[in-house]
Amino acid sequence: MSETSAGLVASPRVVFSGPIDLLVPQELTADVLAVVREALANVARHANADETLLAVAVTEDDISVDVSDDGDGLPATRGSSGTGNLERRALQLGGEFSLTGREPRGTLLHWRVPLPRAEDWR
C-alpha cells in the first residue's frame, strides 16, 4: 500500500469486503489496481486531506472501489484526464463512475463494474 499512498498526509484506511480473491479474475485485477492508484494519487495531489478511506467490495455480480477523503472537495473547474480515464475504463467494462463533493468537506469517488461470469474468464 505504501506505493499507492505516497504523498498522502496519512496512510489511507483500507476496507475489503467480499471474496475478492475468489471472484475477481486476474484480467480485471489490473483495472482495479489502476483505479486505486489513480484515485489515491488524486487525493495526494489535490485534496489536502487528513483522512482517506479506500473501500473495495465484491459481490457475486460486481466489484466496486470507493475512495473518500476529508479534503478540499471538488474545484469549480478541473481537469479530467485521470478521472476521465477512470470513467472510460468503467464504461468500457459495462460499469459506472462518479466523483462527487461531500459536505461539509471532501470528495467521494465511486467506480463499479460487473464481474464477468466464470464461463467467460477463459
Key words describing this protein structure:
122 residues, alpha+beta
**Shape call:** globular
Strand pairing plus helix content: what structural class? alpha+beta
Order of SSEs, N→C?
EHHEEHEE
Could you tell me the mean pLDDT?
87
Largest sheet: 5 strands, mixed
Task: Please report the total strand number as a whole number.
Answer: 5
Strand order of the largest sheet: 1-2-3-5-4
CATH architectural grouping: 2-Layer Sandwich
- What is the number of helices? 3
N-to-C CA distance = 30 Å
Overall radius of gyration: 14 Å
The CATH homologous superfamily is termed Histidine kinase-like ATPase, C-terminal domain
- Fraction of residues in helix: 25-40%
Q: Which blocks of ≥5 consecutive residues have pLDDT under 50?
A: none
What name does the CATH topology carry?
Answer: Heat Shock Protein 90
What count of structural domains? 1
